[in-house]
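User: Predict the full complex structure for these chains.
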Amino acid sequence: MLTIVDYGLGNLLSVKNMLKKIGINSKISNSINEINQAEKLILPGVGAFDNGMQRIRERGLESVLTKRVMNDKIPIFGICLGMQLLGKRSEEGNEAGLGWIDAETVKFQFTNKVLKVPHMGWDYIKVKTVNPLISINQKQRYYFVHSYHVKCNNTEDVMATCHYGIEFTSMIHRENIFGAQFHPEKSLSFGMELLQNFVKL
Amino acid sequence: MALKRIIPCLLYDGKGLVKTTKFKNPNYIGDPMNAIKIFNEKEVDELILLDIYATKEKRRINLSKIADFAGECFMPFAYGGGVKTTEEFYELYKIGVEKVIVNSLVFENPAVIKEAVNKYGSQAVVVCLDYKKNLFGKKQVFSFSGHSVKYTPLDFVKYLEQDLGVGELFLQNVDAEGSWEGFDYEFIKQITEVASLPVIVSGGAGHIEHLKKALYECGANGAAIGSMAVYSKKGMGVLINFPKRSEVIIENTDNQ
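Assistant: Here is the predicted structure of the two-chain assembly.
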């Protein structure tokens, strides 16, 4: 079963609703047992980095998630904060991230006032690497809401970028690990297509 | 840069969708769920639902209804109407509302808005600024709930940004609501020139040229459509529809 990891943050229902819309059964769960049996994982999340990591740790989910993702190599899709947590750390806090991707999260810093933080709204992404979710020449728009963005230390992990003052990483991919800074669950048919392709993996 | 947005703004009376003119004479439009399903198919950028009588009728927010609507919205969803407490903000976010819009609360209890901004982030809190011309033709902040307002519209925007930290302004020209006659362009310009927060303009949309002008000449980040989204034409029957996005929005994918 596709399992949406519930660590007390993020709009899990929106993700589940969209999956249901495309005919996919999913389970929202914070149970170690269920995560142990999951076929695929979605890690949503909205809010602060430390809060997210603390909640994962408090619920004792870090080791089971790491085992499933790093040993069993089941596909995982991190959304928004869920993507940032895949990295090693964040400027936003002091907690260590899950550390599966060699990356850190930094804040948008603009000196001019034209660009507002958070970056909020629809934007096109540019796909950088061949991947199973979206084809490289596909220009597609998605819905973003974020003040921080992920910086990968290995450029081959950067699956797609987006431009907001600077070119930043909008999707990451390394083997079975995927992440999107935007919200596929709020990105209409474009988001449905991504999730559909993730489910097919 | 985030793309400009065209946003259907649906008015809800607690039972069904209505459409008003200057917020009077509500005309029944239909069932919100059907409309939302159609807007999904039409791939609208965002959806706003305002329960325009909630505060006046002192109704509690019907969370289970709003949850049904949010569950059907595969785009960002904003709700406004009768929100009075931080708990209500939280309940709305929990059921899948991305943005909560408040109006009377700014006059009644702005501390709640500030608290919601701190707790849930500025991006999730929108304030609706209603304005109207007074007898002398001067544009003034208007309160449907009957509060006296000490701010000019420009000062009001500064107050929202600096004192409350809200993330978005919903600028509504009450006199033009339901008129189909176009936005209040000069005024929109004045506001967007001083505002550092994103501005959605509302009141008067009747043609795609109106949308283009507000978005690309007057600096609005989003343009709300009311009548245009629920009637086939001025004075004609109900038809849930949405302008052809490509005729309004400059996609600007090249600078990626």
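Chain A touches chain B at residues 11, 13-14, 17-18, 21, 47, 113, 115-116, 118-126, 139, 141, 143-145, 161-164, 167, 185-189, 191-192 (CB under 8 Å).
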